[in-house]
């Protein structure tokens, strides 16, 4: 991890909502770090020694099956926290957690996090609501993977990623998108080409730009709306 110049934590929605005094109290424990593409934060069985509050990065939570297949269970961007099991009392990661879109985060030592963010801290109830939101996200992603075509799933992932990093343009490869969607790279290439022909995205050399956001949301359909509504209802 590369240390970056500290800036206000306003990019992370959980931290931005804190009263000024409580945000200032957390600041000494927050270390600004930059995550690289596919940088691993935790492997299955790792002790969670730090939690992360993404600012411009997006992180994927992957469930590893016995045959080596990886399935995305959740995506975490600036709306949330990476290392949620530590908040819930579990010291061990059950998933492979890695950076999918590079960018900035705040890192906080787990012991300091638990000592500071107790039941009296204003961040505590927000993290409870964030946990509820993550449960909605996991359930909806499972339903989307089971019932919807790859083009719709791809569109859902892209708009969620844009929300997570706060930008309509970000780096992503067909190989990594195939990994998180659980399909072959060729299948992702066909889906991305269909979205590009429709004028919804522009993709070139590993860099994607959302050209028509309303159109991409329409292509994503109900799954994005359910997850987005949960974000807004529970976190705002």
Question: What does the model show?
Answer:
With 236 residues, the chain is of the alpha+beta class. The protein has 2 domains: 2-121, Jelly Rolls; 142-235, Arc Repressor Mutant, subunit A (Orthogonal Bundle), CATH 1.10.10. Helices cover 45% and strands 22% of the residues. The protein contains 10 helices and 11 strands. It has helices at residues 13-16, 20-26, 84-87, 110-116, 123-147, 150-165, 174-181, 185-197, 213-220, 222-235, and strands at 2-3, 31-35, 40-42, 50-54, 58-64, 70-76, 96-101, 103-109, 169-171, 201-204, 207-210. The strands form 3 sheets. A 4-stranded antiparallel beta sheet has the order 1-2-8-4. The protein has a 4-stranded antiparallel beta sheet with strand order 3-7-5-6. Strand 5 (58-64) and strand 6 (70-76) form a beta hairpin. The longest helix has 25 residues, at 123-147. The chain is globular and about 50 Å long. The two termini are 31 Å apart.
């Amino acid at each position: 991890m590369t240390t970056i110049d500290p800036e206000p934590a306003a990019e992370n929605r959980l931290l931005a909502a804190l009263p000024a005094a409580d945000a200032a109290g957390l600041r000494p424990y927050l270390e600004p770090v930059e995550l690289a593409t596919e940088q691993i934060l935790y492997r299955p069985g790792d002790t969670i020694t730090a939690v992360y509050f993404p600012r411009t990065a997006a992180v994927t939570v992957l469930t590893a099956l016995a045959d080596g297949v990886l399935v995305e269970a959740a995506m975490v961007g600036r709306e949330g926290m990476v290392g949620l099991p530590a908040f819930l009392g579990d010291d061990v990661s059950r998933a492979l957690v890695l950076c999918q879109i590079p960018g900035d985060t705040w890192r906080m030592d787990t012991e300091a996090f638990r000592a500071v963010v107790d039941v009296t801290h204003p961040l505590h109830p927000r993290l409870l609501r964030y946990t509820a939101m993550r449960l909605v996200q996991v359930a909806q992603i499972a339903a989307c993977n089971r019932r919807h075509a790859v083009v719709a799933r791809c569109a859902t992932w892209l708009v969620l990623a844009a929300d997570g990093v706060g930008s309509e343009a970000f780096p992503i490869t067909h190989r990594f998108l195939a990994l998180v969607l659980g399909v072959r790279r060729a299948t992702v290439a066909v889906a991305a080409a269909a979205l590009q022909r429709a004028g919804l995205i522009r993709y070139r050399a590993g860099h994607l730009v959302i050209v028509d956001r309303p159109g991409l949301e329409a292509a994503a359909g109900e799954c994005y709306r359910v997850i987005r509504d949960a974000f807004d209802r529970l976190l705002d």
